């Protein structure tokens, strides 16, 4: 009851604050739709490779004569497959002749080199800005022509769709050879901070951005002179929930990345943090300190804004997320005296401790098989990304940075993005779930943190 | 080269700009920067708080070259004399208890608040960058709450005190070293109303 009353007050407070904040909000520049910052993205750098990778050759494509293609499709496919850590790419430097179709390929040559898979392709100009792309993934050991073709793809696209098309082809190769969906067309949301030293004081600008998984096409969703935190995607791929400190109050907001439409969800006098959508996108789990100094987990129904308190006791609870079925909620809590991950059964109300190794386990997410937790773990090296096996309670540490933060699992469950201090600069890195491959995404444009891998 | 000869108006503007920059330089030269010469373990951060009698020095350069953003410029309307000029209170790693050396200064603020019933304060809690961002928000909140509770115990009404946590999102020092971590584990006291 007390909470409901507070919630009604909140609605009034929100309205007042919104009116008062109207002029102040001039400080906030909304970038509705997509803004493109050309040349802002950088290439991934593979720092640790996998010995058991699948051998593949991606041969130079036949290009339209007398024309420079705006996008290097072959290079994008090569980078995607190489950085996934699942493929061992043939070095084309030793090639003496070109092969663009199945008829050109000398399969005995590839068998001799132990290269099982060969990708060939052609690009033709349809008109000034439209191209026809045809690719064939071939099996060097196929017995006849049909048996040799793993897949064929032929598409006509506009020049500004070429990069996306290249990622789609990489997805197809990944899917055909591994039986798992690739993540090369997915997006990552993150927070970028740019600090400017003025003679008087240091000014910071905070950006909520989304970009292709490889850092290309960064687009700004929100710009603010006050901190932005905790971006989290809805499964529809168009809504992002986040925390904003605008007007010196913390609030949880949801933005639609296509329309720029924005709504305020909570604005309590205290902690409004760690939003996470339910699988169906209809509810938001949050961490709020409403009637207690210690924040608790609440579920907010986004249709009627009704909030239900899910945890009590004297502990601080945060970083909630739903389990595979909607009966379970996972969260971080200090109820044992240090930070550990817990599971709440919503039907029985029973709370179970899940992590036991070390005194600091936080920011967890569940692997796709529901058998492991990816989390942030503190050991003597500092803070690193680790995997906790829920059956054995074994902890496997995946990174050795000591400065790792905010691990977020890709939708295919094979790779984790996290923030690091690579090159003494807030930046993103990737590590595979098995810890075998590590890739850094160098960044020279501000500090990047809190990555959230989109659907 | 040619701009000055051809466009007289432009030349005039340029002169004005030059004068303006000169004035700015004079102002900046007057802003002394301060050096941190204390032992990190002593927890003595008095220099940040009472710099030359000015409550809000624009910035302080630490000995390892970091500029400390006081975050207060133009926002704080509170008293600036003696210990009342102290605005930043530092905390131990993962802790949120007020250090004994700050009690005297906080008592002075409490007396000022009791004597100025319209004065309102904002307590901004902060944490160092390491670990979970969400848990750092909680740590910052607990630190701000610790100072808020100190004032409440002295009889200051709850509606005159606001506690807000920035967690690790608004660091005053940007280094990845013990000194920067210590500087960022703090509560800033901001007078929002006189």
Number of strands of chain B: 6
Approximate strand percentage of chain A: 35-45%
Contiguous low-pLDDT stretches of chain A (5 residues minimum) are 1-42
Strand order of the largest sheet of chain B: 3-6-4-5
Overall pLDDT score of chain A:
87
Whole-number tally of structural domains of chain A: 2
| Percentage of residues assigned to helices of chain A | 10-25%
SSE order of chain B, as H and E? HHHEEEHEHEHE
Shape of chain A: globular
CA gyration radius of chain B, whole angstroms: 20 Å
Termini of chain A, distance in Å? 37 Å
Computed structural class of chain A: mainly beta
The biggest sheet of chain B amounts to: 4 strands, mixed
**If classified by CATH, what would the architecture of the largest domain in chain A be?**
6 Propeller
How many domains of chain B, as an integer?
2
Helix content of chain B: 25-40%
**Might you state the CATH topology name of the largest domain in chain A?**
Neuraminidase
Biggest chain-to-chain interface with counts: A-B, 44 and 32 residues
């Amino acid at each position: 009851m007390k909470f409901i009353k507070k919630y009604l007050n909140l609605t009034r407070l929100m309205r007042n604050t919104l009116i008062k904040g109207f002029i102040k909000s001039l400080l906030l520049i909304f970038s509705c739709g997509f803004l493109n910052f050309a040349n802002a993205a950088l290439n991934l750098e593979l720092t640790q490779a996998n010995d058991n990778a699948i051998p593949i050759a991606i041969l130079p494509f036949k290009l339209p004569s007398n024309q420079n293609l705006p996008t290097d499709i072959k290079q994008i496919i090569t980078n995607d497959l190489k950085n996934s850590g699942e493929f061992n790419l043939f070095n084309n430097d030793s090639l003496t002749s070109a092969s663009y179709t199945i008829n050109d390929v000398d399969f005995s040559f590839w068998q001799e080199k132990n290269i099982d898979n060969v990708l060939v392709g052609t690009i033709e100009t349809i008109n000034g800005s439209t191209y026809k792309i045809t690719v064939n993934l071939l099996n060097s050991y196929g017995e006849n022509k049909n048996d040799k073709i793993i897949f064929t793809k032929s598409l006509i696209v506009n020049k500004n769709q070429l990069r996306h098309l290249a990622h789609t082809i990489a997805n197809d190769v990944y899917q055909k050879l591994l039986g798992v969906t690739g993540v090369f067309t997915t997006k990552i949301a993150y927070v970028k901070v740019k600090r400017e030293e003025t003679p008087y004081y240091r000014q910071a600008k905070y950006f909520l951005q989304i970009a292709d998984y490889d850092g290309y096409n960064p687009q700004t969703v929100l710009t603010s002179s006050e901190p932005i935190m905790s971006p989290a995607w809805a499964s529809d791929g168009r809504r992002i929930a986040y925390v904003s400190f605008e007007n010196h109050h913390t609030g949880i907001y949801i933005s639609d990345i296509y329309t720029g439409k924005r709504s305020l969800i909570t604005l309590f006098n205290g902690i409004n943090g760690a939003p996470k959508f339910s699988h169906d996108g209809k509810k938001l789990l949050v961490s709020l300190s409403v009637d207690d100094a210690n924040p608790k987990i609440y579920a907010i129904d986004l249709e009627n804004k009704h909030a239900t308190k899910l945890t009590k006791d004297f502990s601080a609870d945060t970083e909630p997320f739903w389990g595979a079925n909607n009966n379970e909620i996972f969260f971080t809590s200090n109820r044992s005296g240090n930070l550990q991950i817990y599971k709440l059964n919503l039907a029985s109300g029973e709370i179970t401790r899940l992590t036991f190794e070390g005194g600091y386990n936080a920011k967890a997410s569940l692997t796709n098989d529901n058998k492991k937790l990816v989390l942030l773990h503190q050991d003597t090296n500092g803070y690193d990304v680790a995997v906790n096996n829920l059956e054995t309670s074994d902890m496997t540490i995946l990174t050795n940075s000591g400065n790792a933060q905010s691990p977020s699992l890709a939708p295919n469950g094979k790779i984790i993005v996290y923030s690091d201090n690579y090159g003494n600069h807030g930046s993103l890195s990737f590590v595979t779930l098995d810890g075998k491959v590590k890739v850094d995404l160098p960044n020279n444009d501000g500090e990047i943190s809190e990555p959230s891998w989109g659907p | 080269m040619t701009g000055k000869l051809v466009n007289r108006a432009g030349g005039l503007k340029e002169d004005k700009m030059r004068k303006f920059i000169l004035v700015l330089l004079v102002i900046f030269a007057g802003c002394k920067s301060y050096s941190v010469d204390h032992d990190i373990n002593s927890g003595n951060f008095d220099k940040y708080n009472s710099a030359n009698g000015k409550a809000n020095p624009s910035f302080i350069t630490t000995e390892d070259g970091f500029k400390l953003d006081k975050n207060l410029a133009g926002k704080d309307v509170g008293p600036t004399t003696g210990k009342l000029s102290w605005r930043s209170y530092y905390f131990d790693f993962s802790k949120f208890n007020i250090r004994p050396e700050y009690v005297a200064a906080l008592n002075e603020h409490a007396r000022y608040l009791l004597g100025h019933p319209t004065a309102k304060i904002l307590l901004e809690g902060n944490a160092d960058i390491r670990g979970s961002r969400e848990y750092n928000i909680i740590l910052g909140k607990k630190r701000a709450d610790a100072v808020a509770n100190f004032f409440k115990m002295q009889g200051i009404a709850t509606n005159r005190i606001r506690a807000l946590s920035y967690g690790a999102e608004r660091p005053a020092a940007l280094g990845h070293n013990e000194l920067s971590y210590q500087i960022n584990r703090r509560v800033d006291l901001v007078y929002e109303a006189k």
